[in-house]
Design a protein that fits this description.
Length: 447
Amino acid sequence: MNASSDSAKPSLGELIGRLSALHQKRIDLGLERMHRLLERLGHPERKLPPVIHIAGTNGKGSTLAYLRATLEAAGLRVHAYTSPYLVRINECFRLGRVGGGALVGDDELRAALEEVERVNAGEAATVFELKTAAAFHLFAQNPADVVLLEVGLGGRLDSTNVVDTPAACVITPVSMDHMDFLGDTLTSIAGEKAAIIKRGVPVICAEQSGEAMAVIEAQARRMRAPLFAAGESWHVNVEHGRLVYSDERGLMDLTAPRLFGRHQFDNAGLAIATLRAISAFKVSQAAFEAGIVGAEWPARMQRITSGELLSWGPQGSDIWLDGGHNAEGGRVAAAALGDLEERVSRPLVVIVGMMANKDAQGFLANFAGLTRHIIAVPIPDTDHAMPVDILADAARSLGMRVEPAPDIEAALRALAKLAYEVPPRILITGSLYLAGHVLGLNGTPPA
């Protein structure tokens, strides 16, 4: 292709901007538009290899990362669709290849999105619907052994909930989040998540609250779907720093996950239970070992070990990034920080930015016993970010000392001017949008 015709192509950003104009709402749950798109594309969702469908409030991405790493260690080609992306939209689409998958390239992704745009013919559709249709189109065109499919929001009316007979349905921990779309009780939210359960398809479920578990159990019975629940059908424990998994088929003693935090043992256990519940996959203990150790998932208690942030903050400081944004996400991050404090004690500073529809007080309350120093920052280039003064008020209501900063760099440079006897531990948290911005600033986007 000559240079002039190549330069005439829209960038992915321009293409997404054009697609964003097709619907006035960013989120509009429903499946009618999705079914229309897929019919016009020739039903690519019916031409996929076995699909593992993953819903839940927290832990979906990490669980998917363990599944992918383990399946790839077993020699399988794995497609994966995840959301949201942190830095580049390509992160949402991973195509399976022999020897390990790779993010879709710009040209291939542009072609898929343009095909979806063509068949949509200017009708109303959300960007997530168009993006999900493009994922199915890409996955149907490229051979693989399995598809890992992460729910975007909820489950019942999510654009991914169009695969009639997945190989398994996975439900990670359910907690309060997105109440404006899913309902304001744990029962209603669990009902939305449990609606991905399909007739006769195994359901693998993380440990849940009693309310959520009752809903999931009822839906599994209704759909005559075998249920493999944590604490009942399978167990995962930490013993001498190792992951010990057990079910009726036996016990596995595995190296601890590389991803940090006690909750990652639970996420890894959920991935193991899922693969052991699917008879079509034969996964060796060696593949489980390699997958649990090798799984990576950015912005989930991710330690920043290189990049610009280290030069801005106090010399020798310990910088972590976590995209948690609800009360439960704050709880697991705080627990991980507690574990770090027991190993190496450092003063803790939390730099936080959140979206306006999040419960800032509920999120920050988790850190009240660990730090009194909060720096509130805006999330740049993002609609509906929480104003810094509102975020600061939430921190002050918990007795925390809080100060505003105009951006991440200013926050870190301000900390660098303070006289610390021991370099601090710094957590940047509160939003995946903020986390993506930070990884971009740092020059370390997901690959």
